[in-house]
């Protein structure tokens, strides 16, 4: 049945390339670090010249179908990559990787020069890396000038429930709690500037003096407080605290720093097929579709075409004869790489950019089956279910992510994005979904964001930077690099997500620029694709959406990815 669906979706019968040898024998191995011989989890093992790859488990072990003479390329976070040949015997492979000394030295130097962020644990300052539980750092995301007290703010925070107390007054509960705790309605505890206070203090704290709100929801996070934190903990930092907070988490609303930008608009080169230009030129010699496809099928027998850029450029070229022929090329790629998460994301990105949401949904469903521990895969499928009108299925997935009910999967790192998208689903399609068991805070009818920008990238190991420039020529740069974002990247790899959300509200009116620059400096067979999605009037009937997908390997120089008007 699944094969029939594939054929129907991609509208072709798949072919087998000559270089796809019989790979029925699996090779086992382990990847460890030098000199400490520790297993490396989430290392990527790729068979050079193919799209076949796998990842190591938590013990550093892997298994991949090979033939003697294959070359395996091994990459891992903060390690030097390595290439090894598969021997003719069937002995397990023991692969040793060395640390990238240059990057580690730079990170260590930075950490010595800056004060570590802190979290209070049992009211004592602790290194944030020691914290082994989930928390949600909201900063001032839900505070605005109309809030009269922190009860008003709490009503807007997802998974908090403000209800009438048994003895009068208002009480805040953590609606994330389940089982005995949820049934007994244990109030959330409040810690202000490191001191435990009664909940009624929420009525007297001026929201304008609050610099951060952190919610500890899970039992793993609240058990550190003992019975005190049985219902969760709300930790509030105000301008009265004497401590300097240096936690490096990004503020959800995009705040432009006081930097002056003088470069202007940086154009993207018209030559977007640099790597595959010779192949495109050859096919352009043929004026009819049949001859062009014959040339394409001959080309893809060559080793030089066994890369992602070739198939994406060919899909774009053949789209001039209609979407069906673009599908044909993408499905050739899908058939070779349907167990490669990076390739599946690239195919889905391309299909969505072209507006082919049903086909993109199918590809992402395949990715979810392949990687059920990948938290972003659930979000991606839910979002596209909304796009194709499967609203109840989307709502079901969003609720599972919000309540963390998928076994052994923790969606906490992407909860702010999930919350925004679930609110968007409800605001636009409330009559088409079952909204029972949906927390009241998601039912707000006035949900909107002026500008919402979402970045998604096919490889969390990609190093790049995105720069936002305001009409007043002030800029803010977000860097996804080993040096600047090593904690984030480590979390992305272990949890299975690669996306970032930015919100622009109450900002300067006029022309905004979004620039991007690749920092990797390499271009392998599977270059990283960046999907840029901008929503204007997000959540309103006037909402506008635009999707752009770019190959980051082409942008070693800074270029302007987008130029939009905020009004």
How does this structure look, described?
This protein is an alpha+beta fold and 567 residues long. Among the domains are: 17-102, Carboxypeptidase-like, regulatory domain (Immunoglobulin-like); 118-238, Beta Complex (Ferric Hydroxamate Uptake Protein, Chain A, domain 1), CATH 2.170.130.10. It contains 15 helices and 24 strands. The protein has helices at residues 2-10, 101-113, 150-154, 179-184, 219-222, 277-283, 289-299, 308-318, 323-337, 341-353, 357-370, 375-387, 391-403, 415-429, 486-495; strands at 26-34, 44-47, 53-55, 61-65, 71-75, 82-85, 93-98, 118-121, 124-127, 136-137, 160-164, 170-174, 189-192, 195-197, 210-216, 233-238, 449-457, 464-469, 475-480, 499-504, 510-518, 529-538, 544-551, 559-566. It has a five-stranded mixed sheet with strand order 10-15-16-13-14. Strands 3-2-5-6 form a four-stranded antiparallel sheet, with no helix packed on it. The protein has a four-stranded antiparallel sheet with strand order 20-17-22-23, covered by helices on one side. A hairpin with a 5-residue loop joins β11 and β12 (170-174). α9 (323-337) packs antiparallel against α10 and α13 packs antiparallel against α14 (415-429). The model is unreliable at 1-20, 115-133, 177-184 and 242-252 (pLDDT under 50).
